[in-house]
Amino acid sequence: MNNEQLLDLVRQMTLEEKTAQLLQLTANFYEGTNVEGQITGPMEEMGITEQSVDASGSILGLSGAQAIIDVQQAYMKKSRLGIPLLFMADVVHGFKTIFPIPLAIGCSWDTELAEKSAEIAARESAVSGLHVTFAPMVDLVRDPRWGRVMETTGEDPYLNSLFAAAFVRGYQGDSLKDEPDRLAACVKHFAAYGAAEGGRDYNTVDMSERNLREYYLPAYKAALDAGVEMVMTSFNTVDGIPASGNEKLMRGILRDEWGFDGVLISDWASIREMIAHGAAEDDREAAYRAIRAGVDMEMMTPCYVHHLPELIESGEVDEKLIDEAVLRILQLKEKLGLFDNPLRAADPEREREIVFSKEHRQVSYELATKSAVLLKNDDSVLPLQPDANVALIGPFAQSPDILGWWSCEGVKEDAVKLGTALQERLTGGKVQFAQGSNVHTITAEQIAEALEVASKADLIVLALGEDSEMSGEGGSRTDIRLPAAQLELVKQLKAAGKPIASVIFNGRPLDLHGVIDESDAVLEAWFPGSEGGVAIADVLTGVVNPSARLTMSFPQSVGQIPVYYNHFNTGRPLNPEKTEERYVSKYIDSPNEPLLPFGYGLSYTSFSYGDLEVSSNEMTAEESLSIQVRVTNTGERAGVETVQLYVRDVTGEVVRPMRELKGYVKLALAPGESGTATFTLNEEQLRYHHSDLSRRSDRGEFHILVGANSRDTQKKSFRLV
Question: For site-directed labelling of 264, which of 14, 227, 628, 644 has its Cα 20 to 30 A away?
Answer without folding.
Answer: 14
